[in-house]
């Protein structure tokens, strides 16, 4: 991962490994029948090699990759 990469949420707040984030929009998860509701908490996120994506685990889905434009820091 690039050291100079800064990952920001939809409000421009900087995110780091281990942060918790909230969904700001209902999202359908591809390949499943699960829809994550607005306000769902994703704990202990992991940054990826992409500046606009994070990885997290949610109750129903493990190893989920989410775009930062749909998240805000909790």
Task: Please give a structural write-up.
- The chain has one domain: Roll (SH3 type barrels).
- Strand 4 and strand 5 form a beta hairpin.
- It has 74 residues and is an all-beta fold.
- The protein contains no helices and nine strands.
- The radius of gyration is 12 Å and the shape is globular.
- It has a five-stranded antiparallel sheet with strand order 8-7-6-3-9, with no helix packed on it. A two-stranded antiparallel sheet has the order 1-2. Strands 4-5 form a two-stranded antiparallel sheet.
- It starts with 6 loop residues before the first strand and ends with a strand.
Keyword list:
about 70 residues, mainly beta, SH3 type barrels, two-stranded antiparallel ribbon, globular
Integer count of domains: 1
| Helix share, percent | under 10%
Shape: globular
CATH topology: SH3 type barrels
- What gyration radius follows from the Cα positions, in whole Å? 12 Å
| Name of the top-level CATH class | Mainly Beta
**CATH architecture annotation:** Roll
The separation of the N and C termini measures: 24 Å
Mean pLDDT: 92
- Return the structural class: mainly beta
Helix-strand string: EEEEEEEEE
Helix count?
Answer: 0
Strand order of the largest sheet: 8-7-6-3-9
- Which residue ranges are poorly predicted, with pLDDT under 50 across at least 5 consecutive positions? none
Give the tally of β-strands.
9
């Amino acid at each position: 991962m690039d050291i100079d990469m800064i990952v920001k949420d939809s409000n421009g707040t900087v995110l780091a490994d281990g942060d918790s984030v909230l969904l700001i929009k209902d999202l359908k998860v591809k390949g499943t029948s699960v829809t994550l509701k607005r306000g769902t908490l994703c704990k202990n996120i992991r940054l990826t090699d992409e500046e606009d994506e994070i990885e997290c685990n949610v109750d129903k889905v493990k190893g989920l990759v989410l775009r930062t434009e749909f998240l805000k820091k909790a």
